[in-house]
């Protein structure tokens, strides 16, 4: 009996399977779409003055620092207050205006940080954190029901810092 090299019955007339991959057309379309998306994103993002960006980042870090101090201390409240005109400061009581309760923030040389020295303007706010890091606001600590929004301006650039209820995450 002789054996012939014929394809199996269901494979008659088909070419062998080709290697899988992307065609040149598919690659071109993907590159064009990525180029368009990057151009849109680049031109829609406002340019940020590096000094202003550093000030906003410093303020975010100071808010996070106060939250961590509250969580590690076991004290009822730690917080940050801004009078909206001249100063902002950290404190560790329910009476933020008491001089004895004020704390020196990292990078600061005194218990009050002058807005003018930092080149900042800010809306007035009082922010407290409890031992769980949960944020509170107001003259007497009231748990946040909505994000606390702090408007900040530095070097002609405006930004909004938002403190999320329950977690105290600063955006």
Q: Let me know the number of strands.
A: 10
Helix count, DSSP H or I runs of 4 or more residues: 3
Give the low-pLDDT segments. Answer: none
Averaging pLDDT over every residue, what do you get?
86
Shape: elongated
Q: Over all CA atoms, what is the radius of gyration?
A: 29 Å
Helix/strand class: alpha+beta
Strand content: 15-25%
Please give the largest β-sheet: 7 strands, antiparallel
**Ends apart, CA distance between termini:** 81 Å
Q: Please bin the fraction of helical residues.
A: 25-40%
How would you spell out the order of helices and strands?
Answer: HHEEEEHEEEEEE
Description:
The chain has 171 residues and is of the alpha+beta class. It has helices spanning 24-44, 50-73, 115-118; strands at 78-82, 87-91, 102-103, 112-114, 120-122, 125-129, 135-137, 142-143, 148-154, 157-163. The strands form two sheets. Strands 1, 2, 3, 4, 6, 7 and 8 form a seven-stranded antiparallel sheet that branches. The longest helix is centred in the middle third of the chain and has 24 residues, at 50-73. The radius of gyration is 29 Å and the shape is elongated.
In short:
With 171 residues, the protein is of the alpha+beta class. The chain has helices spanning 24-44, 50-73, 115-118, and strands spanning 78-82, 87-91, 102-103, 112-114, 120-122, 125-129, 135-137, 142-143, 148-154, 157-163. Strands 1, 2, 3, 4, 6, 7 and 8 form a seven-stranded antiparallel beta sheet that branches. Strands 5-9-10 form a three-stranded antiparallel beta sheet.
Topology:
Blueprint: H1 24-44, H2 50-73, E1 78-82, E2 87-91, E3 102-103, E4 112-114, H3 115-118, E5 120-122, E6 125-129, E7 135-137, E8 142-143, E9 148-154, E10 157-163
Antiparallel strand pairs: 1-2, 1-6, 2-3, 2-4, 5-9, 6-7, 7-8, 9-10
């Amino acid at each position: 009996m002789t054996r012939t090299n014929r394809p199996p019955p269901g494979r008659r007339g088909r070419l062998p399977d080709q290697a899988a991959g992307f065609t040149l057309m598919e690659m071109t379309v993907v590159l064009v779409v990525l180029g368009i998306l990057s151009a849109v994103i680049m031109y829609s993002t406002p340019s940020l003055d590096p000094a202003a960006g550093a000030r906003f980042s410093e303020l975010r870090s100071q808010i996070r620092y106060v939250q961590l101090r509250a969580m590690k201390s076991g004290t009822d409240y730690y917080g940050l207050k801004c009078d909206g005109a001249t100063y902002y400061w950290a404190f560790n009581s329910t009476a933020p205006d008491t001089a004895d309760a004020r704390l020196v923030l990292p990078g600061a040389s005194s218990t009050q940080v002058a807005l003018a020295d930092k080149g900042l303007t800010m809306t007035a706010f009082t922010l407290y954190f409890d031992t769980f890091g949960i944020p509170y606001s107001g003259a007497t600590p009231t748990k946040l029901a909505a994000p606390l929004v702090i408007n900040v301006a530095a070097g002609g650039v405006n930004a909004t810092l938002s403190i999320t209820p329950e977690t105290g995450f600063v955006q």
